[in-house]
Design goal:
- The protein is mainly alpha-helical and 251 residues long.
- The protein has one domain.
- The protein is 75% helix and 0% strand.
- It contains twelve helices and no strands.
- It has helices at 4-7, 12-27, 36-44, 48-53, 55-89, 94-113, 136-149, 151-168, 171-194, 196-207, 210-229, 233-243.
- Helix 2 packs parallel to helix 9 (171-194), helix 3 packs across helix 5 and helix 6 runs antiparallel to helix 8 (151-168).
- The longest helix is centred in the first third of the chain and has 35 residues, at 55-89.
- The radius of gyration is 19 Å and the shape is globular.
Length: 251
């Protein structure tokens, strides 16, 4: 049986903070943020105008958003379990595995920073959930499709978090890491659905700074990869706990 001390410790807490920020950056990415309003409207079976003017329409969109987030969270949790299982299988080569994962994450970071462009990360492989707008089941299917297929924006960042999960070599810890990433990506969807009229201006402002958001994403990934390659991620974990003692209360 897993205890909180086994799942949450000094090593995992910083990784979860990275995963949370990575999820938020995924939401703010160029091919996610612009489609949020029409996506929510379609899933709720309403129009964007109705979401702006009618509270009932926002309620339907919020309910659909909940099932959408459940759908994408299902995929992320399964991916986290799979990555951690792989890490456990490769436990005897853990040092090499962590270094290799760090190098891959640094390459993903360079992609976002514009230092190099990786062609396959510029492709989308979206799954079609069919004409199921306005139903909770359809929203759940769209969440599954979104998590599986939105590769241009989710691919590099999600790959980095999966790399971190694989180095954990523990299924519960890996799933906790991906659950945190799902929170970072999913909670903004729920907030937009609940407070759409008030957040419209904020979303427009974010769209004007897409390039900066991409560069922040790249810098985050590159830094995490460098810490993994140099073996300093654990040292960073202890430094973070010493600097912010309140984090120790989480575990």
């Amino acid at each position: 049986m897993f205890t909180s001390d086994m799942i949450l410790d000094a090593t995992l807490i910083p990784a979860m903070l990275v995963a949370l920020v990575a999820g938020l950056l995924s939401f703010l990415s160029p091919c996610v943020l612009p489609i949020v309003p029409p996506y929510l409207a379609y899933m709720g079976g309403v129009s964007v105008g109705e979401m702006t003017e009618a509270r009932a329409a926002r309620g339907r969109a919020l309910l659909a958003a909940v099932f959408f987030v459940l759908g994408l969270s299902t995929v992320f949790l399964l991916l986290g379990a799979a990555a951690s299982t792989l890490g456990r299988a490769l436990l005897q080569w853990q040092g090499w595995f962590v270094t290799g994962a760090g190098v891959v994450i640094m390459i993903f970071g360079a992609h976002f920073l514009g230092v190099l462009r990786i062609p396959f990360l510029a492709r989308e492989a979206r799954l079609d959930a069919g004409d199921r707008g306005g139903s909770a089941f359809g929203a759940y299917l769209l969440g599954l499709a979104f998590a599986f297929g939105w590769t241009p924006c989710l691919g590099p960042i999600l790959g980095a978090i999966l790399g971190l999960a694989a180095t954990e070599a523990d299924v519960a810890r890996g799933m906790a890491l991906l659950a945190t990433y799902a929170m970072g990506l999913g909670i903004p969807f729920l907030l937009v659905a609940a407070f759409f009229p008030r957040l419209g201006g904020v979303m427009r402002a974010m769209r004007r700074h897409m390039e900066r958001i991409e560069r922040v994403s790249g810098l985050l990934l590159w830094t995490v990869g460098l810490l993994m390659v140099t073996g300093q991620f654990t040292a960073f974990s202890w430094w973070l706990l010493e600097s912010f003692p309140a984090l120790a209360a989480i575990g």
